[in-house]
Write a structure and sequence with these properties.
Helix content is 46%, strand content 0%. It is mainly alpha-helical. It has one domain (9-89): Rossmann fold.
Length: 91
C-alpha cells in the first residue's frame, strides 16, 4: 500500500516539500497500467519491439497468446487489485 507513515513530515515541511497521502489518487491509472502490461506480455510486445529495433523482422516468432478465454488471477484485491479484476471481467 501507499502511506506517509515513514515520511519525516517535519523535515519535509522545513525543506518546503509538500507530502500528501492520496491512497485513491492513482488507483485507476495503476490498474489500467497493469492491464496494459498483461496485454504486452501476452503478445510479447517488449521482445518484438527489441527485435524490430535490432533490424530483424521475426513476425512468426512473436505470435503471443490470446487473452480471451483465459483466467485472470489477481493477488490482493485492495484498491488497485479490485479495479484490475473489474477490468478483467470484460476480457
Amino acid at each position: 500500500g501507499i502511506s506517509t507513515l515513514s515520511t519525516p513530515m517535519p523535515a519535509a515541511s522545513r525543506k518546503g516539500i509538500i507530502v500528501m497521502n492520496t491512497p485513491f489518487g492513482n488507483s485507476i491509472t495503476t490498474a489500467e497500467h497493469a492491464v496494459a502490461m498483461i496485454f504486452a506480455l501476452a503478445r510479447q510486445i517488449p521482445e518484438a519491439n527489441a527485435s524490430t529495433h535490432a533490424g530483424r523482422w521475426e513476425k512468426n516468432r512473436f505470435m503471443g497468446v490470446e487473452i480471451t478465454g483465459k483466467t485472470l488471477g489477481v493477488i490482493g484485491c485492495g484498491n488497485i487489485g479490485s479495479i484490475v479484476a473489474t477490468r478483467g471481467v470484460g476480457l
